[in-house]
C-alpha cells in the first residue's frame, strides 16, 4: 500500500482529503512499512512546505518520522529556514520544528536567521517565527534580543509595529522568566527612554502596559 501511495505522494499530500490516507499509514503502520513514505517526504519537503495544505501534511509527517530519516528531514528544513521563514506557508513548518526544542536543529535555524530577526518581525508569519525563536530556547532569546537592542531606534519602531510589538512583548517576558537580566535590563531601559514615542501609538501602549505589569510583579 505505501509503495502505491508513494507513486502519487505529492498530489496526495497536497489534497485536503486524500492526505489523510497517507497520514493514517504514518500513524498506524510500522517504521519499516513507512520508510518509502518518509523518503518521499524528504524529497518533496520544500514543495510541501510552501503549499497551503502540504505544509500541514509535512508537519504531521515530522511528528511521526524517526531515526536517520528524521535527522535528514529536520536538517534539510533547517538549512533553508531563512527562505521558509519568509514564505506564507513555510513559516508554519519552521515554527513547528522550533517547537520540537531540538538544540542542534534550533541552533542551525538561528544561524540561518541571524541578521534577519528585525525584518522578519515586521511580517505576519516571520514575527511568529521570531517569537518561537525567543520562546523555545534560552540561546534563541539571546540571539534575537541582542540583535534588537543593538539599535535602540529599531527597538522603538518594532514596539510601534502591529506585528513587531508582539516580538518585543515576548522578549520582555522571556528574558525576565529566564533571568537574562543582561538582556532584560537594556531592553527595559530603551523602552523607558522611548516611552513618550510609544505612548503615541496603540501598539506602543500595549508594550508600555506590559512593561508596567512586569515591573509591578
From TrEMBL:
<protein>
    <submittedName>
        <fullName>Pumilio-like protein 21</fullName>
    </submittedName>
</protein>
<keyword id="KW-0694">RNA-binding</keyword>
<feature type="repeat" description="Pumilio">
    <location>
        <begin position="112"/>
        <end position="150"/>
    </location>
</feature>
<keyword id="KW-0677">Repeat</keyword>
<dbReference type="Pfam" id="PF00806">
    <property type="entry name" value="PUF"/>
</dbReference>
<dbReference type="GO" id="GO:0006417">
    <property type="term" value="P:regulation of translation"/>
</dbReference>
<dbReference type="GO" id="GO:0003723">
    <property type="term" value="F:RNA binding"/>
</dbReference>
<dbReference type="InterPro" id="IPR011989">
    <property type="entry name" value="ARM-like"/>
</dbReference>
<feature type="domain" description="PUM-HD">
    <location>
        <begin position="1"/>
        <end position="215"/>
    </location>
</feature>
<dbReference type="InterPro" id="IPR016024">
    <property type="entry name" value="ARM-type_fold"/>
</dbReference>
<keyword id="KW-0810">Translation regulation</keyword>
<dbReference type="InterPro" id="IPR001313">
    <property type="entry name" value="Pumilio_RNA-bd_rpt"/>
</dbReference>
<dbReference type="InterPro" id="IPR033133">
    <property type="entry name" value="PUM-HD"/>
</dbReference>
<feature type="repeat" description="Pumilio">
    <location>
        <begin position="76"/>
        <end position="111"/>
    </location>
</feature>
Amino acid at each position: 500500500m505505501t509503495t502505491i501511495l508513494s507513486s502519487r505522494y505529492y498530489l496526495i499530500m497536497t489534497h485536503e482529503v486524500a492526505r489523510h490516507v497517507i497520514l493514517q499509514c504514518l500513524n498506524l503502520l510500522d517504521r519499516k512499512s513507512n520508510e518509502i513514505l518518509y523518503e518521499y517526504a524528504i524529497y518533496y519537503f520544500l514543495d510541501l512546505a510552501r503549499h497551503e495544505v502540504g505544509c500541514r501534511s509535512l508537519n504531521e509527517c515530522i511528528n511521526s518520522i524517526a531515526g536517520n530519516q528524521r535527522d535528514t528531514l529536520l536538517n534539510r528544513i533547517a538549512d533553508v529556514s531563512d527562505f521558509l521563514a519568509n514564505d506564507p506557508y513555510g513559516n508554519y513548518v519552521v515554527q513547528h520544528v522550533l517547537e520540537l526544542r531540538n538544540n542542534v536543529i534550533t541552533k542551525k535555524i538561528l544561524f540561518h536567521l541571524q541578521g534577519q530577526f528585525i525584518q522578519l518581525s515586521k511580517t505576519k508569519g516571520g514575527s511568529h517565527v521570531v517569537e518561537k525563536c525567543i520562546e523555545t530556547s534560552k540561546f534563541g532569546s539571546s540571539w534575537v534580543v541582542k540583535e534588537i537592542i543593538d539599535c535602540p531606534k529599531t527597538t522603538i519602531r518594532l514596539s510601534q509595529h502591529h506585528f513587531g510589538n508582539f516580538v518585543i512583548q515576548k522578549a520582555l517576558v522571556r528574558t525576565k522568566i529566564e533571568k537574562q537580566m543582561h538582556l532584560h535590563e537594556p531592553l527595559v531601559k530603551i523602552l523607558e527612554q522611548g516611552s513618550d514615542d510609544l505612548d503615541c501609538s496603540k501598539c506602543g501602549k500595549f508594550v508600555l502596559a506590559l512593561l508596567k505589569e512586569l515591573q509591578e510583579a
